[in-house]
Amino acid sequence: MLDDSKAWDAVKRRDRSFDGRFVTGVLTTGIYCRPSCAARHPDRKNVRFFASGAQALAAGLRPCKRCRPDEVGRDEAAVLAAIEAIKLGEAERLDELAAITGYSPAHFQRVFKRATGLSPAAYSRALREERARDALGQAERVTDAIYDAGYEAPSRFYEGMKGKMGMTPSDWKNGGAGRVIHWSVIDTTVAPMLVAATEKGVCCLSFNEGEEELRARFPKADLVRGGEEFRALFERVTQAVEQPGTGADIPLDVKGTAFQQRVWQELLRIPAGETRSYGELAAALGNPKASRAVGGANGANNIAVLIPCHRVIQSDGTLGGYAYGLKIKEELLSREKAG
Question: Taking a C-beta distance cutoff of 8 angstroms, is the pair 282, 288 a contact?
C-alpha cells in the first residue's frame, strides 16, 4: 500500500497505472473508487485509502457504479485471455474475443482499449507487423516472411506497412545492406554531436560518439561523410540541439517494433519544458503496467533530442538515466524550461 500522499497524488491525476493497487474510499458518500475514476474529486479530508476493495467493503463502503473498482482484476484477466487468443490465432474478430471473455462486444472494446491503448483489431495488426519484422530478418525470401507473419497476401503487408518501416522490406531483411548513410560529427555547446541521415531523414543523433559507434548501429550500411546535399539538414539538426524544442519538422528515418514506435510517438507529444515519468508515459499509452517496457523502448531510441527521450524521468522527480550522461540530460531540460 502506498503512503497517503502518493495515493492522493495518483487520484488527482486519475492515473490508471494505480488501478488495482488501492481504492479510494469517500466517507461522506459511502463509496469506494478506482484511482482513475472520472467522478468529481472529493475533499481530501473525506477520503481514506484501502489496499483492496475487500477492505473497503469491510469498512462499510460500497463500490462505485461508475468506475466499478472490483472489476479491475476481471478486466485484466479478460484482456490477457484475448491477447493470448490473438497470439495463438484462435480468435481475432471483436465478437469472437468478446465471447471468450464473457463481455458484450462494445464493452470489451472499451476494456481492451483502456488496457492496451489499441482496439483488438489494431492490436492484431500491430502483432502481425512485429512478426513480419522478425521474420524478415530470418526468412530466405521476403514473401515467405510475409505469409509466416499471418498476412493473407503480400499486397496486404505492403499496404499496412507503408510509411512505417523507413526501409523497404528487402532492406530490412538484409540489415540495411546497400543503404547509404551520410554522417558528420558537429561541435555543439551541449557536446560533440554525431548526426547521420539517409535520403529519407535523420536515422541517428547521439553525443560523444563517432564513426565506430555509428557502424555498430548500422553494420551493413555504406557510411559516407556528409556532403553539401546534407549540409542544410545537418544545420537544422544542430539548431534543434542548441535550442531544444525546435526542429519538429525535421524528417526522420527510424525503425522499431510497433510498441517502440508508439512510445516514440508519445515522446513527441510531450511539450518542450515538460517531463513525464515512465509510469505516466505507460498510462498515456493505455498500458499502465508497462513502465519497464516503456523504459526499454526509450533506451532503444537512436535519435536523441528529435525524439525527446530526455523528457522522461523517475516518478520521484529525479532524472533517472540517460544514454549520454545525466549532465547532458540536465542541460537539455534546463534549456527547454528556460526557453
Answer: yes
Q: Give the other-Cβ count within 10 Å of 188's Cβ.
A: 15
Catalytically annotated residues: 33, 309
215 in Cβ contact with 223 (< 8 Å): yes
pTM of the predicted model as reported, rounded to 2 decimal places: 0.54
Nearest-angstrom CA–CA distance, 226 and 234: 9
The answer to whether the CB of 1 falls within 8 A of the CB of 48 is no
Report the distance separating Cα 18 and Cα 69, nearest Å.
11
Query: CB neighbours (10 Å) of residue 166?
Result: 18
- Are 282 and 17 within 8 A, CB to CB? yes
Tens digit of each residue's pLDDT (9 = 90 or more) over 185-225: 999 999 999 999 988 889 999 999 999 999 888 888 889 99
Written as one string, the DSSP assignment of 85-131 is HHHHTS--SHHHHHHHHTS-HHHHHHHHHHHHSS-HHHHHHHHHHHH
